[in-house]
Specification:
heterodimer, A: 110 residues, 7-stranded mixed β-sheet, 3-stranded antiparallel β-sheet, 56% strand, B: mainly beta, 6-stranded mixed β-sheet, 0% helix, globular
């Protein structure tokens, strides 16, 4: 099974901080994705990546950026955290057999 | 943009009942996914379907490509099946998700 690991389960950050959410997967040829999940809105795609140094905007990229310097690691960056970015963030990897999700990072911005 | 609609939003049933959750999507997709999320838990992929029917234990998923409709069935439901079930459509560039069905199985 593909494993997708998110480094933090819970994070509390202050408004204006730069925040890094880390995600690591153990398959060499994986597409990787960052989603956020909010009550009533469901899961929405922020960014995705097909390969190293490649990134594509999803449905809600504003306020976020990503980094993929190595194939196994896909980082989500909140350049200047705001309270409306308080959410559950989920990383996912994809193979031809489907998607594998990380356990999620619940981020609170105060 | 693909839209994914699920029904019902909430479902409460008694242990042992046969459960059906429905999903409709608006445009062509490469695959339809059924996902499960327990309270406070991560998301687990149950099925990926592009045609026909798949079965895993007490779970069965079907898809009708012409009607753009999929169903998830749970036979002999059990309280441990209580979770949010999410339908999602898409492919290599990501998934579009339904809002989820919150299922509660009472003993």
């Amino acid at each position: 099974d593909v494993k997708v690991t998110q480094s933090s389960r819970y994070l509390v950050k202050r408004t204006g901080e730069k925040v890094f959410l880390e995600c690591v997967q153990d398959m060499d040829h994986e597409n990787m994705f960052w989603y956020r999940q909010d009550p009533g809105l469901g899961l929405r795609l922020i960014y995705f990546s097909y390969d190293v140094k490649m990134k594509e905007k999803g449905d809600i990229p504003e306020g976020y950026s990503v980094s993929r310097e190595k194939k196994e690691r896909f980082s989500l960056i909140l350049e200047s955290a705001s309270t409306n970015q308080t959410s559950m963030y989920l990383c996912a990897g994809r193979t031809d057999y489907g998607y594998t999700f990380g356990s999620g990072t619940r981020l609170t911005v105060v | 943009k693909n839209e994914v609609e699920q029904s019902p939003q909430n479902l409460t049933a008694q242990e042992g009942e046969f459960i059906t959750i429905n999903c409709s999507y608006s445009v062509g997709i490469s695959a339809l996914h059924w996902l499960q999320q327990h309270p406070g838990g991560g998301i687990v992929s149950l099925f990926m379907l592009s045609s026909g029917k798949k079965k895993h234990g007490r779970l069965i998923a079907t898809i009708n490509i012409q009607e753009k409709h999929s169903s998830l069935h749970i036979t002999a439901s059990h309280p441990r099946d209580s979770a949010v079930y999410i339908c999602a459509g898409g492919g290599a560039d990501g998934l579009t998700f339904g809002k989820g069905t919150h299922l509660i199985i009472q003993p």
